[in-house]
Amino acid sequence: MLSSKIVADRDFVISALDRRVFGTFVEHMGRCVYGGIYEPGHETADADGFRGDVLELTRELGPTIVRYPGGNFLSGYDWQDGVGPKDQRPVKLDLAWGSTETNQFGTNEFITWCRRADIEPMFAVNLGTRGPDEARHFLEYCNHPGGTLYSDLRKAHGFEEPHNIRFWCLGNEMDGPWQICARTAREYGRIAQETAKVMRWVDPDLELAACGSSARTMDTYAAWEYEVLDQCFDQVDYISLHQYFRNDENDIARYFTVIEDLNAFITEVTAIADAVAARRRSSKRIMLSLDEWNVWYKAHGGEHLRKPGWPEAPPLLEEIYNFEDALIVGGVLITMMNNADRVKSACLAQLVNVIGPIMTETGGPAWRQTIFHPFAQASRHAHGEVLRLKVDSETFSGGDHEAVPYLLATVVRNRDTGACSVFALNRSTDQDMALDVELRGCGVTALTGAEQLHHADLKAINTRDDEAVSPSDNGTAVLNGERLTATLKAQSWNVFTLA
What we know:
The protein is of the alpha/beta class. The chain is 24% helix and 27% strand. The protein has 10 helices and 26 strands. The strands form 6 sheets. Strands 3-4-7-8-9-10-11-12 form an 8-stranded parallel β-barrel, surrounded by 6 helices. The protein has a 7-stranded antiparallel beta sheet with strand order 2-15-19-20-26-22-23, with helices on one face. The protein has a 5-stranded mixed beta sheet with strand order 16-1-21-25-24, with no helix packed on it. Strand 3, helix 1 and strand 4 form a beta-alpha-beta unit. The longest helix has 22 residues. It is globular and about 65 Å long. It starts with a strand and ends with a strand. The relative contact order is 0.16.
């Protein structure tokens, strides 16, 4: 059996955890909207056409913020197409995904859905085919109280009160040649600066995120971040990161190390942002928004991206997740929490059907994919401050990485209640691990929960009829004073809660 030791002290804190790291993403792509969150006529649908079964699972998943309406879809989207009477909305071709967009679901439907799900909306403005003028009009429509053209248009559409959307993304993946009206770093940085400026003139109290690189593997990576922030540093609060995790080689040891790549990505972008600040001798710190992330490699190319004939809401990117994918998602969540001083927002992409933790059949049931569970547990139990840990663990090698700790862990403590949550991933596939956690000064008095996500088969999946991968009790956990001990099964994600 492997051995591991964690020392956590309540006075050694990385940062308060911003709960918006438990965000997700809804894009007009495939069956994420139509047949996902919105399906009039479904047996569970309410009067607004929202699927009740998906709403229920969304509340259980626990996302705190949802990014909308894209994604690549954003760069060709006119927000005015999706407001007003539905019988007057135009049907258009979506160049991003080769689909026909009916615009029967738009801004006000999404806001209504967010309110019903009790989730904060994160909106994005089109900086592909559109620009600063459309962005300020869209913001006026959403946030201005009234008495102007666009705010009164919102009222005429049945929404008297402003939507009050605080978090806005300035475009999407503008470095990518696949993007509608892709831009150079200088071009994008300038338009982001001017868009942010006029948006703040409409509503000063906004949080704005500039586009970082579409991936760490882009040829322009790092140079893009520096140039963009050099142009718009004074007007933005965040730089975005996008990362999708792959297991193309079917090598679990290498797969486990993609989590280390994310940690390097966060470290590098933080350094770049701080270099831009240093050039200005500025104390301002740009925060990070990991506003697209997930496992994605099985449903990746060709027919998974486009269907012939411009269909409406075709099945696209419907990744079927297995148990090892859930372990990676758990590791990513731990890594984000351990970088809580700079990662302040994140969006699991996407919510339903399209690389989503929730799957549906159009006209049929909805169910939890394997990756649903670590996200739901983290969102439910991680409240407070992330503690700075001393971790001792044996190591392994995988891919290009050597001496990678088998144990990946974080501890989150609620300063108000003293409650602690310990999240632990055992990355060994063949050895259990003895875990010893010393919680110095944390004041814990009772073990209130011990759950593990484990399956003997790394390729096990969940289906509509069989949830093979789901949390179970870890009966080995014991709290003795300030010391928590437990056995972590090989290849397992674990959550311990203490009062």
